[in-house]
Design goal:
single chain; 11 helices; TIM Barrel; 11 strands; eleven-stranded mixed β-sheet; alpha/beta; 14% strand; binds zinc ion
Length: 334
């Protein structure tokens, strides 16, 4: 291949129309899942301070918010339940309550927006008094097998309520297989499992922990979540979940882990979801607030990078703001 002066790369970048003919599109709204936080009550819409533009909703409040989200064509939601601290216990039992806020929300969405995809987060950390993802043993370690028994019950409750799929996020060994068996036995062979298969212990979850009130009271989650410094075992986690019957794999967070998404893309033919986490969302807004960048332009670049790395499904707090992000993109092109 000849270089300069025969080869001039700038020829292909001369005009917006030439560029647009060869560029990839921003992923369509149908590829997005919007993570939402639900609390009990009526008419609740509490701003989440660390995540501007995001709220904790009561089930009816969420239904109102979903009208515009559904009209935009966003694929669906990923539902997180938030309960008051005084209702939490040592084992996370309230997560399995069929009358809990998540099953209530799922039933309501099913009724009002039957087309939306509804995934539910399946983990115990928002329901345990200590904030870990399962019951603790005497030394303070999460008991793997006790946790998966509870997670299986929780998944069946969500499937009974009509969830399209469940999303186990506890990083317990064997949880995908346990959920599959429990849901099949309960007559939910059609319910999808989107596993948080490669989920890292990350410092980018801070704003989420405010939103879901799920910060561990002591210790951290490094004994069950993957290490950002150990990519091979992080990828093995996804391979094991695929073997256990996951329908969709996931990498979380997304932006510091584009290499992991790309490597997983080479290894699997299952769909890959990437979770563009709270810290990745809030830091763009914080920078923009200081005048250090345009939030929507940075969002567009982030989302394109995640898709370019190979993700099919993008779980992002930009989902309910998709039109603002596209608006920013159009300003840049014109
Ligand atoms: Zn958890």
């Amino acid at each position: 291949m000849n270089g300069y002066p025969e080869r001039r790369m700038r020829r292909l970048r001369q005009t917006p129309r030439i560029r647009r003919m060869i560029e990839m599109e921003l992923p369509a709204p149908g590829h997005f899942l919007w993570p939402v936080f639900v609390v009990e009550g009526q008419g609740v819409k509490q701003p989440i301070e660390a995540m501007p533009g995001q709220f904790r909703y009561s089930p009816d409040g969420l239904i109102e918010a979903l009208t515009s989200v559904s009209e935009m064509g966003i694929g669906g939601v990923l539902v997180f339940g938030v309960i008051p601290d005084d209702r939490k216990d040592e084992t996370g039992q309230p997560a399995c309550d069929p009358a809990g806020v998540v099953p209530q929300t799922v039933r309501l969405i099913r009724e009002r927006f039957p087309d939306l995809v509804v995934f539910t987060d399946v983990c115990l950390c928002a329901y345990t008094s200590h904030g870990h993802c399962g019951p603790l043993d005497r030394r303070g370690n999460v008991q793997n097998d006790a946790a998966i028994a509870l997670l299986s019950r929780m998944a069946v409750v969500h499937a009974d309520a009509g969830a399209t799929g469940v999303a186990p996020s506890a990083m317990m060994d064997g949880q995908v297989q346990a959920l599959r068996q429990a849901m099949d036995a309960a007559g939910h062979a059609e319910t999808l499992i989107m596993s948080y298969s490669t989920k890292f212990a990350s410092s980018f979850y801070g704003p989420f922990r405010e939103a879901a009130a799920s910060a561990p009271a002591r210790g951290d989650r490094r004994s069950y979540q993957a290490s950002f410094a150990d990519p091979r075992r992080a990828l093995l986690e996804s391979a094991l979940d695929e073997a256990e019957g996951a329908d969709i794999l996931m990498v979380k967070p997304a932006l510091c882990y584009l290499d992991i998404i790309a490597r997983l893309r080479e290894r699997t033919d299952l769909p890959i979801a990437a979770y563009n986490v709270s810290g990745e969302y809030s830091m763009l807004i914080a920078a923009a607030d200081r005048g250090w960048g345009h939030a929507h332009e940075m969002a567009k670049e982030s989302i394109t990078a995640i898709a370019r790395a190979g993700a099919d499904i993008i779980i992002s707090y930009w989902a309910n703001r998709y039109e603002e992000v596209v608006g920013g993109a159009m300003r840049q092109a014109n």
